[in-house]
Amino acid sequence: MKLKFANRMSYYIKASEIREILKVTEQEDVISFAGGLPAPELFPIDEISQMTQIVLKEAGAKLFNILLLRGIPLYVNGLPNE
Fold first, then answer.
1. pLDDT tens digit string along 16-30?
2. What superkingdom heads the lineage (predicted)?
């Protein structure tokens, strides 16, 4: 599926200092100590995939409802309070 977006949006999206810094962090020879940029290999992709499938099967399309900004209580209440 090809999505079309308004060309006028590019007029409003300007380069920012943050975007420029993030470009540097994408270089292979750069080790970034910036917060919020964990090494991708540290993410437990298999576990996240399994959890996502379970939640999608149990909650279905309700997950995409804007009214659930605070999350589905069944799942939110099961998170550790750290």
1. 787 888 888 888 888
2. Bacteria
